[in-house]
Hints:
By secondary structure, this protein is mostly helical. It folds into two domains: about 1-30, no CATH class; about 35-135, no CATH class. Helix content is about 60%, strand content about 0%. It has helices at about 5-15, 20-25, 35-45, 50-55, 60-70, 75-85, 90-100, 110-120, 125-135. Helix 4 (about 50-55) crosses helix 6, helix 6 packs across helix 7 (about 90-100) and helix 8 (about 110-120) packs antiparallel against helix 9 (about 125-135). The protein is globular and about 50 Å long. The N and C termini lie far apart (about 50 Å).
Amino acid sequence: MPEKNTDELEHELQTADNLNTFDEENAEFFRQYTLAEYLQKLLEDKQLVKAQVIRDSHLDEIYAYRIFNGDRKNTSRKNILSLAIAMKLSPKETDYLLYYAGHKKLYVKDPWDHIIWYALSKGKNILETNELLEAGKHSTLLGKMD
């Protein structure tokens, strides 16, 4: 059976007469990852090197490795966004990463979030993103700024 994307599943759920039937018919399409598993999937899918992503995120190296290894729970939203920027994720990919980290997705009506969304969509790095945040008089992403 071919893969169903999120939009297709949303449409089917909206038009479903019975939730249990929908769940049974689509169980194979529901993905449950831990944050560490999803980060590993992103590294593989995008052919990224973990050490480089960590350097580009400007997060503390030991702390970031603990996130990737699943040893760090309750990672802040700003740290997850730093990883997303370092991985050059799209805003939609970032929303999935935020989901697996247990955080709310980006909301473009929020002034801080829309700067992050813009930075992601334009492939900005952490330093460039922080400059945009500072220019808008917002708090910057966490992490060391060498």
